[in-house]
Design brief:
Its main location: cytoplasm. Its EC number is 3.4.19.12. Belongs to the peptidase C19 family. With 725 residues, the chain is of the alpha+beta class. The chain is 25% helix and 15% strand. The protein has 21 helices and 21 strands. Strands 1, 2, 3, 4, 5, 6 and 12 form a seven-stranded antiparallel beta sheet that branches. Strands 8-7-9-10-11 form a five-stranded antiparallel beta sheet, with helices on one face. A hairpin with a 4-residue loop joins β5 and β6. α10 packs antiparallel against α12 and α14 crosses α15. The termini are far apart.
Length: 725
């Protein structure tokens, strides 16, 4: 029998069992019923392990089950095999090697690498001119670890070949499947990894931009190949530009451009003319730096223009991120960063603070073997599994290792690069916790406080046995509500997780910059209600009429669409914090239409009113509040009107049974705070500072460094722990 291929033993071993390639078909026969071709709607995970942050870039590669299409690192694939009996996996591995040098010492001329077929981010720390990538795929049959190199069209059964091709060509599992959803995940541009950038000396200033072919100073796009600044397309409302950026692409063929004014530390709007759609550029920071733009110092304003009132805010960006200070990188357990997925810093900051708390560490990472062993068949859709995975990734130190000099020398000798983990990507975690949530599932910036409450709600719903780590945040709030007509007073106690501090509008120092009135009027001229336009501009962070218009389209069916804008904690408006301090009267009823929506879902009217009062009449937060306060009972069940005594005007309520509130010393110490930069909590950037081992550490997305000047007075959320007496 002629030998055309090879079957090898255990990966990394030297004495594996070998068989003739002609026996490949016979070897697969017993397993054929378990091999499937991915169907429409199947999620194919080929970039990330379900239990860890291993990927094809990892030393052991990644194993994709050919039946469930779940992926597992080398440490976890055996668990899946034992649990399910699935035997056939596709092993994916990316190799990084130094390019062969020419006679003159430079790298050989660049050629198209046909050996790259995995949709993976390349290592930003490597110069693409000096290194080359090679992707490897093979089938592995458990438990004997037989390996079949791919492609192997001649030897493999047709079904197996079709299944392998379908797995390798599958799209990201995080792309939303519902065609009716408003916003899908942006694809990574195929031009981003190997984008050509001309060394023409072009440097882009931080402001004052103008189209190179006309006099327009808005809707400007920077071509990432030659640095040309040109105007965008004309819009139906007579705004926009003259289309010079598109003309430039047609003339030169340079594919990618970024919109000036949208660049922030979290990303920017990037458009691919060749692909004809908005895209993601995983190397955007490097591409912008080529033209002298530092993403960390960009604040996302139209043409970089700011009023004098905005100057203090500019300094806050630098102070909060400790810009200008040489910060020492931190490595090891507890010092792992989180890569920014595009406006995901709100999630990263909250999760870093959460997993610095011992109760959360014990509940998830401390129970890792049990949680992983008893996880459902699809661990990507289990909250406790994904919380444990994230906690272990942040705390183990496995993904935060400093480069070791001896290892670097060994890599040079082998001419193979071993990538250093530069933070972990919370993509799978974000996809699950934001599922079915219209805001968190989008790529827009969100409020870190809102996400914190959303996370606590998920922890409450998915508690592990009797242990509930979110109990550390629970506290009792006493509310005093007085009826303006009868003057009767009612005292109630409720459980909450977050104490809000309202700030009066009169105390604001930048009142003139809360809302861009020019954008408001531009939207109002299109026929939208004025108050709706004001809300659209405010909640999109003054990013311009175009972004605010998109907000209007998404929210125009909401019952309070045209209601006046209520800024959180401002003026006489009832804020979420107002209920904490007992400032809400009985005559200040929530909008009846929102109450009706909640009661139509089967909840009691009093539940709806209580929840809306506690959440500033926010429908989504009110529903979360109801689910996270199971101890709340309808008023009629326990309201006792005290009559015929000295307290005839007092209504007293029984306390909920078993509030699970830990009492103790009234002394607290600050151990973490989250800071926000930007014109609203729905835009800008979030950074977290945590006190660890006696010193403050700054967590700025994937960058983790020792803090030199922690800006404690510029926090948005503060975390305290009780100090025992």
């Amino acid at each position: 029998m002629q030998r055309r291929g090879a079957l090898f033993g255990v990966p990394g071993g030297s004495g594996g069992r070998k068989m003739a390639a002609g026996d490949v078909g016979e070897l697969l026969v017993p397993h054929m019923p378990t091999i499937r071709v991915p169907r429409s709607g199947d999620r194919v995970y080929k970039n990330e392990c379900a239990f860890s942050y291993d990927s094809p870039n990892s030393e052991g590669g990644l194993y994709v089950c050919m039946n469930t299409f779940l992926a597992f690192g080398r440490e976890h694939v055996e668990r899946h095999f034992r649990k399910t009996g699935q035997s056939v996996y596709m092993h994916l591995k990316r190799h990084v090697r130094e390019k062969v040098r020419g006679a003159s010492g430079g790298a050989l001329p660049k050629r198209r690498n046909s050996k790259i077929f995995l949709d993976l981010d390349t290592d930003d720390d490597l110069n693409s001119d000096d290194y080359e990538y090679e992707d490897e795929a093979k089938l592995v049959i458990f438990p004997d670890h037989y390996e079949i190199a791919l492609p192997n069209i001649e030897e493999l059964p047709a079904l197996v070949t079709i299944a392998c091709d379908a797995v390798l060509s599958s799209k990201s599992p995080y792309r939303k499947q519902d065609p009716d959803t408003w916003e899908n995940e942006l694809p990574v541009s195929k031009y981003a990894n190997n984008l050509t950038q001309l060394d023409n000396g072009v440097r882009i200033p931080p402001s004052g931009w103008k189209c190179a072919r006309c006099d327009l100073r808005e809707n400007l796009w920077l071509n990432l190949t030659d640095g040309s600044v040109l105007c965008g397309k004309w819009f139906f409302d007579s705004s926009g530009g003259n289309g010079h950026a598109l003309e430039h692409y047609r003339d030169m063929g340079y594919p990618l451009a970024v919109k000036l004014g949208t660049i922030t530390p979290d990303g920017a709007d990037v458009y691919s003319f060749q692909e004809e759609e908005p895209v993601l550029d995983p190397h955007l920071a490097k591409h912008l730096a080529h033209f002298g733009i530092d993403m960390l110092h960009m604040h996302g304003t139209e043409n970089g223009l700011r009023d004098n009132d905005m100057k203090p805010r500019v300094s806050e960006w630098e102070v909060i991120q400790e810009t200008g200070t040489k910060l020492k990188p931190m490595y090891g357990p507890g010092y792992t960063g989180l890569k920014n997925l595009g406006n995901s810093c709100y999630l990263s900051s909250v999760m870093q603070a959460i997993f610095s708390i011992p109760e959360f560490q014990r509940a998830y990472v401390g129970n890792l073997p049990r949680i992983f062993d008893y996880s459902p068949l699809d661990p990507t859709q289990d909250f406790n599994t994904q919380m444990t995975k994230l906690g272990h990734g942040l705390l183990s130190g496995q993904y935060s290792k400093p480069p070791v000099k001896s290892e670097l020398i060994e890599q040079v000798m082998k001419e193979e690069h071993k990538p250093q983990q530069n933070g972990i990507s919370p993509r799978m975690f974000k996809a699950f916790v934001s599922k079915s949530h219209p805001e968190f599932s989008s790529n827009r910036q969100q409020d870190a406080q809102e996400f914190f409450l959303h996370l606590v709600n998920l922890v409450e719903r998915n508690r592990i046995g009797s242990e509930n780590p979110s109990d550390v945040f629970r506290f009792l709030v006493e509310e005093r509500i007085q009826c303006c007509q009868t003057r009767k007073v009612r005292y109630t106690e409720r459980v909450d997780y977050l104490m809000q501090l309202p700030v009066a509008m009169e105390a604001a120092t930048n009142k003139a910059s809360d809302i861009d009135e020019s954008s408001v009027m531009q939207l109002a001229e299109m026929g939208f209600p004025l108050e709706a336009c004001r809300k659209a501009v405010y909640f999109t962070g003054n990013m311009g009429a175009e972004v605010a218009f998109n907000w209007i389209i998404v929210h125009m069916e909401e019952p309070d669409f045209a209601e006046p804008l209520t800024m959180p904690g401002y003026g006489g408006a009832a804020s979420a914090g107002a209920s904490v301090f007992g400032a809400t009267g009985l005559d200040n009823q929530p909008p009846e239409e929102i109450v009706a929506i909640i009661t139509s879902m089967g909840f009691h009217r009093n539940q709806a009113i209580q929840a809306l009062r506690a959440t500033n009449n926010n429908l989504e937060r009110a529903l979360d509040w109801i689910f996270s306060h199971p101890e709340f009972e309808e008023d009629s069940d326990f309201v006792i009107e005290m009559e015929n005594n000295a307290n005839a005007n007092i209504i007293s309520e029984a306390k909920p049974e078993g509030p699970r509130v830990k009492d103790g010393s009234g002394m607290y110490e600050l151990f973490a705070f989250i800071s926000h930069m930007g014109t609203s909590t729905m835009s800008g950037h979030y950074v977290c500072h945590i006190k660890k081992e006696g010193r403050w550490v700054i967590y700025n997305d994937h960058r983790v460094c020792a803090s030199e000047r922690p800006p404690k007075d510029l926090g948005y959320m503060y975390f305290y722990h009780r100090v025992p007496r």
